[in-house]
Amino acid sequence: MLKTIVSSILVLSLSLSAETLHMHKMDMTPDDDRQSLGIKGTPQGVHQLSNMREHLAAISEIVGLMNTGKYDEASTIATEKLGLTLEKNSMCGSFKNQSFEQMGVVFHKSGDNLAQTLKTKDHAKSMVALEKVLNGCVLCHSTFKQ
């Protein structure tokens, strides 16, 4: 099941990239009606991109650890990289956008929930918790842009 999910994500990513490239070449860029945070090209924007890439790398690492039965290690990564810390809570609020802040806090709390669920070593429940984390990514990226 995990391999199917990872394969599906990869295929979707590749098809979206190909579609975007085709649209760019044809000058058919789709309208982007997401809400701007007003940080594109700023130091805050660069920092945010770095954080999101770190989140994605953490999810990839967690999936790999789950695949090898290393749930305790996966839990540690979820806590450290995805969980809600004082620093992450403050960072979510630094964008001066209440919806973004709330979405960020919910995302990081889902990271904490994932960490706790991984400790049970229950694969099915861990997958449900991981899905909630990924749904947070999808929701945020479909709502906001830099």
Automatic annotation (TrEMBL):
Superkingdom classification of source: Bacteria
Record flagged with keyword Chaperone: no
InterPro entries: Cyt_c/b562
GO molecular function list: electron transfer activity; heme binding; iron ion binding
Keywords: Plasmid, Signal
Protein name: Cytochrome C
One GO process term, biological-process aspect: electron transport chain
Signal peptide residues on this chain, from the entry's feature table: 1-18
